[in-house]
Amino acid sequence: MASGGQAPTAISQCAPTPSWAQIASKHTSTQDLSPLHNPSVLNKLKETTSDFIKLDADTLSRARLRFQHSLFGKFFGKPPSFEQVKLFLLKKWENFGEFLISDLPNGFLLIRCSSQTAMQHLLSDGPWTINGIILQLSPWKPYFEPSFTKLTTAAIWIQLHNLPIEFWSGDTLETITNHLGRLLKIDELTLSLTRTKYARVCLELDLSKPLCKGFTARDDSHRIFTIVLYERLPTFCYSCGVIGHGSNSCSRSPATGKATVSQPPRPSRGKEVRQEPYPSVAGLDAGPVPPSPVHASYAPVEKFAR
């Protein structure tokens, strides 16, 4: 679908709008936390004690082995109760393997996966949603403190348009996308050159930073501009590239009218897209994130048939 439609309403003198990651970090107020998990209380306690316990490296290494296939999760929004979430996710992920899900302070989840393969499925086959609320997943890391931690990264599938096919090898794609985020997975149809209208990769992106509109790939004699499109994002501003607000409420958006377009659809292609219907548990809806209007001044965006 080519760009068109009504111009968004211009908003003057808008207050600066936070990114999506900043909004998400405010969903759990410190007033809602137990005093034992309130950062301000914990910091005061730290100042009043000088006791230290040192653990040797072997003890720590053994303790961490059980979490080598684990993830941390947190919803960007208010989810249903933990028991509903647990039942729902176990049913939704049952084809990937066995999982153990437990709750942590500050709204975090600990998800222990049965294998590295199962963990990679959860990271790269999302984003996962309940009632339209995105579950952000991040690999387990040592010294994780839920009361002090904010998740700002997400696994997002992106499309690279106008990238020459000689750049579609695994090593080259990893090099090219390194400035966008950490490469998690390459669509098998991209690697095999089975579908070649655009390259498709899954990256771990820092959503606290503006998203990249495109980039120029070059060697000593040629330059090629590549357009970057993002699949199934939450509310996203194509004027400034920040997640958390739309273009019609962006403080950086010019007051002139612009055409609006739609985000690219998630393609139905290969093993990367699950064909089974989304499960439902006690009235929970697991539908995909609906596309939201975006500002045409951010990048030339069209709906491509694959």
TrEMBL record:
Residues 247-263 have a biased composition (Polar residues). The gene is LOC120260138. It comes from Dioscorea cayennensis subsp. rotundata (White Guinea yam). Keywords: Metal-binding, Zinc, Zinc-finger. InterPro entries: At4g02000-like, DUF4283, Zn_knuckle_CX2CX4HX4C, Znf_CCHC. It comes from the Eukaryota. Signal peptide: none annotated. GO terms for molecular function: nucleic acid binding; zinc ion binding. Pfam families: DUF4283, zf-CCHC_4. Residues 247-306 are annotated as: Disordered. Residues 237-250 form the CCHC-type domain. The lineage of its organism: Eukaryota, Viridiplantae, Streptophyta, Embryophyta, Tracheophyta. This is Uncharacterized protein LOC120260138.
